[in-house]
Structures are given as C-alpha cells and as structure tokens.
Specification:
Length: about 180
C-alpha cells in the first residue's frame, strides 16, 4: 500500500526514520554524534538522497502539530528525490510500524517498540537503551551515516533482540500487579 501511494518499487525495502521534535533538546540522555535533531536529519537526508536501493520515509514527531512552529517539512527538502518521502500525518502509526521493514531513530521509544515487534532498529549512539543489545548502535557519527548505506540489519538476531526489548520495556514501564493501587 505504501509503495502504491508513493509509486515506489515494491521490491525495495522501506526504512522509516522517526524524528524527535526539532526544537527539543535531549535533556536526560544528550547527543554526542550530532549537534541537534536538525543536524541529525539533514545529515541523514544528505546521505540517503542518492541511496535509492531502499525507499525512505521521514516521520515527524507526533507532537509537532500540537507544538506548532517550524516543522520537519520546513527544513528538509525531499521533493527532489522520488525514494524519500514524508509520512503523512494522518497515517495510522501502528499500521505504519507493521508495514515497513526497518527503523532509524536517535533514541526515541520507537527503538523499543519496533524491536519488540521483530523489526531491526539503527541508532547513532547509546542514548537510554542503545547499550542493552537489542538495537544496532553505531560507533560514531561517520559510522552511523555509513551504516545507512549498508545492510546494517543482516547480522542482527531479530528474535533475540525482540525478547531483550520486551524485557527492557517490562523493566522500564512495567508495574507489578501488587503495585496496582
């Protein structure tokens, strides 16, 4: 359905890049590979613009509309590239997660959610879960951008990673039954 919507080759995988709010500063985990989210997404687009071996989707943060102000579409030009598109804001997020093949994020919760669903995820640095072994974590900025041009997911054990992500999610967000009150 996504390939039909964008007139893409259905034989190419779809990689979706989940963004944070552009003005948000990652207060509790920081960023060392990129200056900010704008630098992150502009570097990605500069890398993938000529990499048409995949279809690429850019997903703005779901709170961008609520916050208002500068949007991802205001600062990133993708109309020049048929294989790079924005996710329409009205698309169902869960259906999108099931429909795409791979995910990229800085340190968004999608890294945990997608991995739990058995989908491979690439992150540029440790963040708050990168060192738990269920996502592919780059060694540096250059390594991250290089991985975008490679089949970075091939060595990943998706079943084991899904189990680790579910354990992490349970430990992080879970509430034992005895704590229900």
């Amino acid at each position: 359905v996504i390939c039909e919507f964008f007139n893409w080759d259905p034989n190419k995988d779809i990689v979706v890049i989940y963004m944070a709010t552009l003005f948000d500063f990652p207060h509790f985990v920081g960023m060392s590979c990129f200056e900010n989210y704008l630098d992150f997404i502009q570097s990605i687009v500069s890398t993938i613009r000529f990499n048409n071996t995949h279809n690429w989707l850019l997903k703005p943060h779901p709170m961008d509309e609520w916050y208002g102000g500068t949007s991802l579409e205001d600062v990133v030009e993708v109309n020049l590239y048929n294989h790079v598109k924005f996710v329409p804001t009205k698309w169902d997020s869960v259906a999108l997660m099931h429909a795409v093949d791979r995910f990229v994020t800085y340190h968004g919760t999608i890294g945990i959610e997608a991995t739990s669903m058995g989908k491979p995820v690439l992150v540029p640095e440790e963040g708050w879960y990168g060192d738990h072994g269920f996502v592919r974590m780059a060694e540096s900025r250059d390594h991250f951008l290089q991985l975008l041009t490679e089949n970075w997911w091939q060595e990943m054990d998706i079943v084991q990673n899904a189990s680790k992500a579910k354990q992490f999610a349970g430990a992080f967000w879970g509430r034992p039954n005895w704590q229900k009150t």
